Amino acid sequence: MRTTTDAAMVSAPGAPLGTTTAPVGSAPPQQGARVLRLVKPKAPKQPEQHAMHRPLARLLLAPAVGTLFLWMIVPLLMTIYFSFIRYNLMQPGEHGFAGLMNYEFFVTDPSFMTAVMNTLLLLGSVIAITVVAGIAVALLVNEPFPGRGIVRVLLISPFFVMPTVNALLWKHMMMNPIYGVLAQVSKFFGAQPIDWLTDYPLFSVIVMVAWQWLPFAVLIFITALQSMNREQLEAARMDGANAFQQFRFLVLPHLSRAIAVVVMIEMIFLMSVFAEIFTTTGGGPGNESTNLAFLIFKQSLMNFDVGVASAGALFAVVLANIAAVFLIRMIGKNLD
After folding, report:
1. Please, what is the Cα angle at 164 between 172 and 312, to 5 degrees?
2. Structural domain of residue 243, as residue ranges?
3. Contact, 314 vs 227, CB < 8 A?
4. Which residues contact 243 (CB under 8 A, 6 or more apart)?
5. CB-based contacts of 272, cutoff 8 Å, min separation 6
6. Residue 243 within any structural domain of the chain
7. pLDDT value at 207 more than 70
8. Rounded distance, CA 39 to CA 259, Å?
9. pTM for this one?
């Protein structure tokens, strides 16, 4: 005897779909009759079955989540601990509680305000250069021309150069006052070569960092331009809009989200610029090219004061979080 789910049922001509007359085997179907097979639908999974798998999923994720948590929280807790004690490597036996003395010492350091201003100037200058130049280069490369693929690869390649190598290239090949490229250009036009790293140290660091981060901005802007609707540009061109009007009212609003992304990512990473300064100017002359990251380095590895350096590191963390709050609000408005 067959069950209803496995039996083939027969319906007469003209009968509604799903109406059965006789099971298979009892009588041969009439000519023209439709044979239907009834399939029992699968029962949906019960919520209890999903709940049974949740502990297993959390158990499998626990090692990775725990490792990441420890990797983040342990250095932060150690930094907070060292910032409240007297910890100088030249005096290894004195580890007493210092309270807020390390913070006060770091903030009242004569180099502190100079380092903060240099950090903000470096941050704002590099972001402005990369955004403006990145949009211009992206607009040029976005138009079709022979060898466009090779040009795009060459434009993006400086971003993959390590910061130390980038600093050495600019220090010896470009800005050397004797055999550098800029010195040779100055001699060709009859001008006196400039010792860039001595006369304009912070400007030299800004040029190095901007050169390395410009390809990143170009890549983001090219990607955004590729998704732009060409029909809008054609319609604006047919309505008599010139190139500047198309850029002002169509291209620039379309790039607003890409600009916000570039500003956010660059601000996060440029807060900790160190290799270019350490390799080229050493923070000098004096403190003219010292930023917060290099000031923390001087307190920790030059003055051997781990407590003051830890206080400075926490100050940099607070400053970065304040900047991140404004950036998140700005990007949230652009994404609405």
Report:
1. 125
2. 112-289
3. no
4. none
5. 293, 316
6. yes
7. yes
8. 56
9. 0.75
